[in-house]
Design a protein that fits this description.
two-stranded antiparallel ribbon, 129 residues
Protein backbone atom coordinates (compact mmCIF):
# COMPACT_ATOMS: atom_id res chain seq x y z
CA UNK A 1 0.00 0.00 0.00
CA UNK A 2 1.64 3.28 -1.07
CA UNK A 3 1.98 6.00 1.54
CA UNK A 4 0.32 9.37 1.11
CA UNK A 5 2.48 12.18 -0.20
CA UNK A 6 3.45 14.73 2.42
CA UNK A 7 1.96 18.04 1.34
CA UNK A 8 2.62 19.89 4.59
CA UNK A 9 4.97 22.84 4.75
CA UNK A 10 8.58 22.85 5.85
CA UNK A 11 9.22 26.54 5.12
CA UNK A 12 8.78 27.81 8.68
CA UNK A 13 5.07 28.55 8.49
CA UNK A 14 2.44 26.78 10.58
CA UNK A 15 0.37 24.41 8.48
CA UNK A 16 -2.90 22.81 9.55
CA UNK A 17 -5.40 20.11 8.78
CA UNK A 18 -9.15 19.77 9.25
CA UNK A 19 -10.34 18.98 12.78
CA UNK A 20 -12.21 15.69 12.59
CA UNK A 21 -14.13 16.45 15.83
CA UNK A 22 -15.22 20.12 15.56
CA UNK A 23 -18.32 19.54 17.70
CA UNK A 24 -16.26 18.49 20.72
CA UNK A 25 -14.02 20.52 23.01
CA UNK A 26 -10.73 18.71 23.58
CA UNK A 27 -7.19 19.80 24.30
CA UNK A 28 -4.06 19.18 22.28
CA UNK A 29 -0.73 19.64 24.06
CA UNK A 30 2.73 19.98 22.52
CA UNK A 31 6.05 20.13 24.33
CA UNK A 32 9.15 21.33 22.48
CA UNK A 33 12.07 20.75 24.89
CA UNK A 34 14.82 21.85 22.50
CA UNK A 35 13.75 25.44 21.73
CA UNK A 36 16.55 27.86 20.97
CA UNK A 37 16.76 31.55 20.17
CA UNK A 38 19.32 34.31 20.67
CA UNK A 39 19.44 36.94 23.41
CA UNK A 40 19.03 40.30 21.63
CA UNK A 41 21.18 42.02 24.26
CA UNK A 42 24.20 39.70 24.38
CA UNK A 43 23.94 37.64 21.21
CA UNK A 44 24.29 34.50 23.35
CA UNK A 45 22.07 31.48 22.72
CA UNK A 46 18.97 31.01 24.85
CA UNK A 47 17.51 27.58 25.52
CA UNK A 48 14.12 26.57 26.80
CA UNK A 49 11.03 24.45 26.54
CA UNK A 50 7.91 25.65 24.76
CA UNK A 51 4.54 24.26 25.88
CA UNK A 52 1.47 24.72 23.68
CA UNK A 53 -2.03 23.75 24.78
CA UNK A 54 -5.01 24.51 22.57
CA UNK A 55 -8.61 23.61 21.92
CA UNK A 56 -9.06 23.42 18.15
CA UNK A 57 -12.04 24.78 16.28
CA UNK A 58 -12.06 23.93 12.57
CA UNK A 59 -8.29 23.36 12.13
CA UNK A 60 -5.47 21.56 13.98
CA UNK A 61 -1.74 22.28 13.83
CA UNK A 62 0.32 19.91 11.70
CA UNK A 63 3.29 18.95 13.90
CA UNK A 64 6.02 18.68 11.30
CA UNK A 65 5.38 22.22 10.06
CA UNK A 66 5.30 23.42 13.68
CA UNK A 67 8.73 21.88 14.30
CA UNK A 68 10.12 23.78 11.30
CA UNK A 69 8.33 26.94 12.48
CA UNK A 70 10.04 26.74 15.90
CA UNK A 71 13.41 26.35 14.18
CA UNK A 72 12.97 29.83 12.64
CA UNK A 73 13.72 31.27 16.08
CA UNK A 74 17.12 29.53 16.29
CA UNK A 75 19.21 32.48 15.05
CA UNK A 76 16.72 35.23 15.88
CA UNK A 77 17.49 37.88 18.50
CA UNK A 78 14.29 38.00 20.53
CA UNK A 79 13.21 38.52 24.16
CA UNK A 80 11.41 35.70 25.99
CA UNK A 81 8.16 37.68 26.19
CA UNK A 82 8.24 38.26 22.45
CA UNK A 83 8.92 34.57 21.77
CA UNK A 84 5.83 33.42 23.66
CA UNK A 85 3.49 36.12 22.36
CA UNK A 86 4.71 35.72 18.77
CA UNK A 87 4.13 31.96 18.87
CA UNK A 88 0.64 32.51 20.31
CA UNK A 89 -0.23 35.15 17.69
CA UNK A 90 1.00 32.91 14.88
CA UNK A 91 -1.02 29.94 16.16
CA UNK A 92 -4.16 32.08 16.37
CA UNK A 93 -3.57 33.40 12.85
CA UNK A 94 -2.96 29.89 11.48
CA UNK A 95 -5.85 27.94 13.02
CA UNK A 96 -8.19 30.30 14.94
CA UNK A 97 -8.46 27.97 17.97
CA UNK A 98 -11.20 28.19 20.57
CA UNK A 99 -8.48 28.61 23.20
CA UNK A 100 -4.70 28.51 23.22
CA UNK A 101 -1.97 28.90 25.82
CA UNK A 102 1.74 29.11 25.11
CA UNK A 103 4.29 28.87 27.92
CA UNK A 104 8.02 29.27 27.58
CA UNK A 105 10.24 27.93 30.35
CA UNK A 106 13.67 29.32 29.64
CA UNK A 107 16.86 27.89 31.11
CA UNK A 108 18.75 29.68 33.85
CA UNK A 109 21.07 32.47 32.69
CA UNK A 110 22.86 34.73 35.12
CA UNK A 111 21.22 32.89 38.01
CA UNK A 112 17.64 33.58 36.87
CA UNK A 113 15.21 31.23 35.12
CA UNK A 114 12.16 32.68 33.40
CA UNK A 115 8.68 31.38 32.66
CA UNK A 116 6.37 33.37 30.37
CA UNK A 117 2.74 32.41 29.63
CA UNK A 118 0.30 33.99 27.17
CA UNK A 119 -3.31 32.92 26.59
CA UNK A 120 -5.88 33.48 23.87
CA UNK A 121 -9.61 32.83 24.37
CA UNK A 122 -11.70 33.01 21.22
CA UNK A 123 -15.02 34.83 21.14
CA UNK A 124 -16.92 31.54 20.66
CA UNK A 125 -15.09 29.63 23.41
CA UNK A 126 -17.52 27.81 25.65
CA UNK A 127 -20.54 28.44 23.41
CA UNK A 128 -22.67 25.73 21.84
CA UNK A 129 -22.46 27.36 18.39
Amino acid sequence: MPSAENVYRTDGTIDSFENQFPGRDYEIEFTAPEFTSVCPMTGQPDFGTIFVTYTPDKRCIELRSFKYYLQTFRNRGIFYENVVNTILDDIVAAIAPRMATVTGEFNTRGGIAARVTATFVGSDAGSDA
